Amino acid sequence: MPDKLKLLVSGPYGGLNYGDDAIALAIKDELQCRGISVTFAVNDVAGARSLFPDIPILPRLNLRSGRVNILPHIREYDCIVVGGGEQLSEPRLPNFIWGHLATNLQLCLLAKLSGKKFALLAVGVDANLSCLGRFLMRLILPMADFISVRDVRSQQRLQKLLQSSEIMLGSDPAFLLEPYSHHHEAKLLKQKYHLPGDTKTLLIMPCIDKFNSLAYIENINSAVKEWIASGIRVFYAVSDTQNSYDMRLFNERILFTHDMATWLSPTETGLEEICRTIVAVDCVISSRMHPIIFAAVNQTPFICLIRSAKMSALMEMLTSPSYFYIEQLDKKELTEKASMILWQSRTAFFQPIKPAIETLKQRAAHQFNDLTEALI
């Protein structure tokens, strides 16, 4: 009987971003059910060990910080896998030392120098890569043994850049996470917050990033005041707990708070709690990608606030009209759409997009099958 395949999966995992950790969880489950041994190389070792106590954890390669603990371990694995997320993207200052793209190209070279295979799994490709980034990708990525991307736009960018049709169209691994029961989770949520059984509930998960202004938050705050005036219970949560990003919304109380509009504390809320809350509420409004994916998987109606190309790509794949662009967000339109969704059945919301969700689940699973075949 052949030895079990051993994969080292690298990504920004470890509890700071719930989307990245959802990807890691799905990757772990999918690879393990195929009899593959998994080790994670992560940003936050302590956080990852808490999230994945049954998985060996190594620090992710980071030349800028001098974190190279991974180097002597590469020869222990059959393949180095870069797993999910927008891993082919650059920092503001393009370079070959730090940032997702640089780190992952370094891993590709190290894998090949060590005689090991290298794979990119369900990655996103930035629409605004520098000339340096594109040059390095053309030089190094043809060495990869397997590449799948999470959306059509990423596939088109990479096919054009590498002049190759061997780029598999997958989808985000988080589409493969097991769904929860809405009725059970809704009952628990309303019991916890002492809400009448017929209370309508909203979860809002906005974001802060370096590319978009906070002007849209004013429209959200105005809408929240109208919702709570009509008896709707509003919850807030963050998807990224890094100090320089969404945590500002919590720390600086940028969102309107009230007895009927309160925060799920980031220090007391992990990936599982976020997923359960998304399942429990009647509608999710988010400008983050993975809360929308969690909602789609669990058939919780949603409104996506598009802030980037990857969010547009997600809505295209879901064939859903339930979105606004944040720079064009109108309070009246947002309020009306949410009100319509809250009094609409889940079946009515999801019936038009259910085939698209099933397709994305199938694509997510197929890429793991193809990855396994490429490694055997």
Task: Give a structural overview.
By secondary structure, the chain is an alpha/beta fold. Helices cover 41% and strands 17% of the residues. It is built from 14 helices and 13 strands. It has a seven-stranded parallel beta sheet with strand order 3-2-1-4-5-6-7, with helices on both faces. A six-stranded parallel beta sheet has the order 10-9-8-11-12-13, sandwiched between helices. The chain is globular. The protein starts with 5 loop residues before the first strand and ends with a helix.
Write the layout of secondary structure elements.
Blueprint: E1 6-10, H1 18-32, E2 37-42, H2 45-51, E3 57-59, E4 79-88, H3 100-113, E5 117-125, H4 131-140, E6 146-149, H5 152-162, E7 168-169, H6 182-192, E8 201-205, H7 215-229, E9 233-236, H8 247-251, E10 261-263, H9 271-280, E11 283-286, H10 289-297, E12 302-306, H11 309-318, E13 323-325, H12 331-342, H13 346-350, H14 354-375
Parallel strand pairs: 1-2, 1-4, 2-3, 4-5, 5-6, 6-7, 8-9, 8-11, 9-10, 11-12, 12-13
